[in-house]
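Inverse folding, one chain.
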């Protein structure tokens, strides 16, 4: 499990770069109202981060637990995406709270929130999404 956690941490860094970059682009260039800046932008950036991190999980971290079929890839993606909805709620809530308390830049708030939501994501992935199963 430690090896998977280290790989997951690397995946998290890549996901955080994608998430934060997209968030920065959206909040700097496109969205300026409170809702679009603090709710919609983080949701979009997080979803793009989920897509990238799922691909890393499926093909690198838990590749020994998957069937390498299109239907398996899509089914597990739906489970992964749905399960990480809770992590998204944690991230947006923390991002908002951190910003309101400390008045850090949105990108700093995002990185801090991602650290906490990442821990939730690992345990959900390890124990519920990419469970050990027989190859078909």
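Residues assigned per position:
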């Amino acid at each position: 499990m430690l090896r998977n956690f280290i790989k997951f941490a690397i995946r998290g860094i890549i996901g955080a770069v994608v998430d934060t970059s997209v968030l920065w682009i959206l909040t700097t260039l496109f969205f300026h109202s409170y809702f679009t800046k603090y709710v919609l932008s983080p949701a979009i950036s997080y979803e793009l981060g989920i897509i990238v991190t799922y691909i890393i999980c499926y093909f690198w971290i838990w590749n020994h637990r998957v069937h390498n079929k299109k239907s398996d890839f899509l089914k597990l993606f739906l489970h992964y995406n749905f399960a990480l909805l809770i992590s998204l709620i944690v991230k947006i809530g923390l991002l908002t709270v951190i910003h309101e308390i400390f008045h850090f830049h949105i990108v700093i708030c995002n990185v801090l929130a991602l650290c906490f939501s990442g821990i939730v994501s690992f345990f959900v992935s390890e124990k519920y999404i990419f469970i050990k199963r027989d190859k078909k």
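Residues 2-129 form one domain. The chain has a mean pLDDT of 88.
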